[in-house]
């Protein structure tokens, strides 16, 4: 378990889910998160039943708005990682969810208070303008809300149900 040293907590919070990672890169994942949070991070790694030989961890974080994106940028250095980072809406920023699935890269979207994906009206207009058929629009909307990413991550999420969450606090 890791606890950060900043009791004030910043103005945003969320959860980092490392759904699967090879044991050899787990220390590197901790170092990358530490670099963003600004404090030493030591995650509680457990076996990932959905992918034998892989490990999983999850940890809550508190920090400045935009921390989820900075953590995702740091973690994308390891393309074999499966991860998901949420950032709840704050008084100064909308919420977001950032996911990475090997072979797909980063998927990112706005997130409502209840965790739903939020698409902006300009995004929807663009999808409608580019669609050449109703099926094409359905496919584009499905991609925009992350349906394929969710389908790939769901078995890894279920494997972590009931796991306690530790909180990290950003320093500074």
Helix-strand blueprint:
Layout: E1 12-22, H1 26-37, E2 46-47, E3 54-63, H2 67-75, E4 82-87, E5 95-101, E6 105-111, E7 117-118, H3 121-130, H4 134-144, H5 147-158, E8 166-169
Parallel strand pairs: 3-8
Antiparallel strand pairs: 1-3, 1-4, 2-3, 4-5, 5-6, 6-7
Which descriptors would you attach to this protein?
172 residues, alpha+beta, eight-stranded mixed sheet, 5 helices, 31% helix, 28% strand, globular, disordered N terminus
Brief sketch in words of this structure:
With 172 residues, the protein is α+β, with helices and mostly antiparallel strands. Helix content is 31%, strand content 28%.
Any idea what the radius of gyration is?
Answer: 17 Å
Query: Which shape, going by the Cα principal axes?
Result: globular
The separation of the N and C termini measures 21 Å
Tell me the total number of β-strands: 8
- The secondary-structure element order is EHEEHEEEEHHHE
Number of helices: 5
Computed structural class: alpha+beta
The chain-level mean pLDDT equals 87
């Amino acid at each position: 378990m890791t606890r950060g040293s900043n009791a004030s907590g910043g103005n945003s919070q969320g959860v980092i889910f490392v759904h699967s990672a090879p044991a050899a890169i787990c220390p590197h994942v901790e170092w990358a998160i530490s670099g963003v949070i600004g404090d030493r991070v030591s995650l509680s790694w457990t076996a990932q039943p959905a992918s034998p030989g892989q490990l999983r961890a999850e940890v809550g974080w508190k920090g400045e708005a935009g921390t989820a994106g900075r953590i995702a940028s740091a973690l994308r250095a390891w393309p074999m990682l499966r991860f998901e980072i949420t950032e709840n809406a704050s008084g100064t920023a909308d919420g977001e969810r950032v996911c990475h699935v090997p072979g797909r890269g980063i998927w990112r979207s706005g997130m409502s208070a209840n965790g739903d994906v939020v698409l902006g009206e300009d995004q929807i207009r663009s999808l409608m303008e580019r669609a050449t058929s109703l099926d094409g629009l359905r496919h584009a909307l499905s991609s925009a809300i992350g349906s394929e990413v969710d389908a790939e991550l769901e078995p890894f999420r279920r494997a972590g149900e009931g796991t306690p969450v530790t909180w990290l606090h950003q320093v500074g």
